[in-house]
Each structure stands twice: as C-alpha cells, then as structure tokens.
Amino acid sequence: MQIPEFSKEQSALLARFLAEQKDALSLAQTHGYLFAVICAPEPLDVHQWLEQVVPGCDGQMDEQVLFAFMALYQQISEHVFETGYSLPVSLQFNSAQQPYLDMQECQHWSQGFMLGAQGYIAKLLAAPQLASELKEALETAQQSLCFFILDSADIASIANQHGLTEGLLCQQQYEVMNEFAAGFAELIEAVAVNSQLYNDEGWG
Fold first, then answer.
1. Interhelix angle for 103-125 vs 46-53, to 10°?
2. 92 strand-pairing partners
3. pLDDT tens-digit series, residues 143-156
4. Confidence of residue 203 (pLDDT cuts 50, 70, 90)
5. Percentages of the chain per state (helix, strand, coil), in multiples of 5
C-alpha cells in the first residue's frame, strides 16, 4: 500500500490526538522515539511502537489517525535512509531577529529518543566483542542526542564551565545533535555488526 506523504494537516491531527490521550507521548517525543526505533538493529512492528506512543490503544484508533502515524513513520524512515535526517525542531527568531530554540520540543525529542534507544544501546554497549572506538562513538552519540533531557540547572552549570550563555550552549548542542542524528543509523549498523550480537537474521 502506498502511504501518502506526511502533511502539515496530519501533523496537527496527531498533535491533537496525542494531547487527548492518557499517558501518550507528545508529538515531539513521538518524533524522537520513532527515529530511535527506525535506527534500531531490530525495528519494532507497528503494533509494538504504537503501544509505546499511545499506551493501551491496542492499535484501535480512527483510520485517519492511524494513516497519519504510518505516514510519519515512513517520512522519518525516508529521511534516515535516503534524504538525510535532521531534527524536527528548528531555530526560531524573536522580534529582535535573535535565534532561539523551543526548549520543551528539544527536551521532548530527546526523551522520546531515549525511550526508543536505551534498550538496544545498553545491549550493544555491554557486548564483550565491541571495539573500544565504536563503544566510545556510541556513548558520545547517545550523550549528545539525550542532551536536552538534562535539567536547566545542569545546562546552566555546563554553560558556566565553558563561558557560554545557556542559549548559545543549547544552540551549539543542537547543531552537534543534528550531526550525530544524520549518521546515527550507520553508526548503529556498524556497532551491531561489530558487537557480534547481530546478524542478518536478527539478534544472536
């Protein structure tokens, strides 16, 4: 079945739907979560990831909503493997034309990413066969992509240590996150193969 391209209308539909569901992820968390799932050595099927996004739904939802989720999944997948992935959170500009980030959106993306990736990253990092340089690369990528989970006090402390404003630190981290996100699927593939936990048939 050909799934239509994910539209602004579908994005608004999902944002409304998720806001109305008990314990559901936000749309930004869903973006981060699906990115992690799509990059996984063993991707989840649709029912598994929908249950994480909307707990208790059992896949039962309006057809338009389901199609919107599928279109979002496909869009993220295409960006990851074909056109190049970039974070869905973009720099905004205030009335003085100064750039700023929507910190809640950044935090939510990182939270969703951690939810989707922490299980397989922990398994890969624990693999005895994993080369040290790949382990270090994966740990660095994880720390970067989860940066915005840090609370404001920790971010302020890091900014102070580096002589930066919090806003400038966050913008720098956002740019680094985009670089790690763009190559994350390739990194996971390399780590999974090197770990010897994974082959063409799945986890060993």
1. 130
2. 100
3. 999 999 999 899 99
4. very low
5. 65, 5, 30
